[in-house]
Amino acid sequence: MAFRDECGVFGIWPMPEASRQAYLGLYALQHRGQEAAGICSRDNGRLHLHKAQGYVADVFSEATLDRLPGDAAIGHTRYSTTGGNVASAAHPFVVEGRFGQIALCHNGNLTNTEILRHRLIEAGQVFSSPSDSEVILALINRAQAPSLEDAVVEALRQVEGAFSVLILTEDALMAARDPHGFRPLAMGRLGEATTFSSETCAFDLLGADYVREVEPGELVVVDRQGTRSRFPLARVQARPCVFEHVYFARPDSLVYGLSVMATRRDMGRLLARRHPVAADLVVPVPDSGVSAALGYSEESGIPFDFGLIRNHYVGRTFIEPRQSIRSFGVKVKLNPVRELLRGKRVVLVDDSVVRGTTSRKIVSMVRAAGAAEVHMRISSPPTTHPCFYGIDTPDREHLLAARMDVEGIRTFIGADSVGYLTLDDLQASVKDAGGESFCYACFTGEYPVTPRSKGTCG
Length: 458
Ligand code: SF4
What we know:
Layout: E1 7-13, H1 18-28, E2 36-43, E3 46-53, H2 56-59, H3 62-66, E4 72-78, E5 93-97, E6 100-107, H4 113-122, H5 132-141, H6 148-156, E7 164-169, E8 173-177, E9 186-190, E10 193-197, H7 201-206, E11 209-213, E12 219-223, E13 226-230, H8 243-248, E14 254-255, E15 258-259, H9 260-274, E16 281-284, H10 290-300, E17 308-310, E18 334-336, H11 338-341, E19 345-350, H12 357-368, E20 373-378, H13 400-403, H14 406-413, E21 417-420, H15 423-429, H16 441-444
Parallel strand pairs: 16-19, 19-20, 20-21
Antiparallel strand pairs: 1-4, 1-10, 2-3, 2-4, 5-6, 6-7, 7-8, 8-12, 9-10, 9-11, 12-13, 14-15, 17-18
Helix pairs in contact: 4-5, 5-6, 9-10
Bound molecules: iron/sulfur cluster.
Pathway: Purine metabolism; IMP biosynthesis via de novo pathway; N(1)-(5-phospho-D-ribosyl)glycinamide from 5-phospho-alpha-D-ribose 1-diphosphate: step 1/2
InterPro entries: GATase_2_dom, Ntn_hydrolases_N, PRTase-like, PRTase_dom, PurF, PurF_N
Protein name: Amidophosphoribosyltransferase
């Protein structure tokens, strides 16, 4: 079981009932954040906002969408990486300053937030939340540049780390990606409208066509004159997050122009070649292990089946019986299919091992269901370092692979064998998007941007 998701962003201009299109877009991006959702629309030069904690379907109703009129909108689904699950940190943020009203939402973590925030507070700035987004908005409003577009550039040149950001103003929609391009941002077209999304699965739901990626370091501006692009940020080697392909993104999305389903299947095939084992059944840890397990099965010739069933309706918290001596834990989410597993030598495929406690429970569950052997196969290298670019990860001392070798991990989780994908194999699986140039810091500790502080996803 992997690191936690981060955030999803969506934007569209110009489109009748833009907020309803954004609502659909956010629905498709729900997997990227379940703690809060928000939409800001633009109508006759005024911005309208609704945001709250909860799932997209709970946050919005016919009535709330009716209060978001206009022909342009941006939206956000949030998973808080740091700063806690506080309502004040929901996106988008809207401020009114010398450039009129500006709304902003973003995906990613800034790595110099504390320095910038401290400097801004010293200069008299006040903040209502721990969000990085407020820092960017403050920098825009305090910029020396005479135009809003140049003020945005001036602000983005000061921030470090990961950001895929959408900005809605009284007369433009802007999309920008940090120079390393850590987090994805795709551009699409729906009739006359230009649309942006963290993942292309949102375009599919709307019937929009995928056009291209917003490039690392690019600023795209959409207004009445049309769509224009510039590259005002420092030119550096792009470092898109490989974990989007390992785990975060939906398999039906294109991310960095690559099919996530195809890359995950390749990871599974390479894993089967690297760590073959005599077994009867390949079983994914659902949902994120499914595509890699299919690849493992195809390459090895071992049959694939759903030996674990996931309950998709589990909320973030649930109440256990007070008198219970058992901990329900992972059993609430996953249940084994005993009839499939009994007496079988099982290859269990998952995307990653973080703390190892969940993997240990799953292995134990599969054994208790009657499996004769359990062989764990992981479709990424050992995760030894935390992420500072928008993914919620435990500190290094809590990462199992930072504390022990593969044999230690095997003993800890109680499997008969454990096999990880190698870094070379992972690079090979995303080679069509420039494999070696991705960010692999959580596997290598080689951080493309020195982490000076941990910001918040939005
Ligand atoms: S450290 Fe890992 S999770 Fe974070 S951006 Fe890099 S590859 Fe992605």
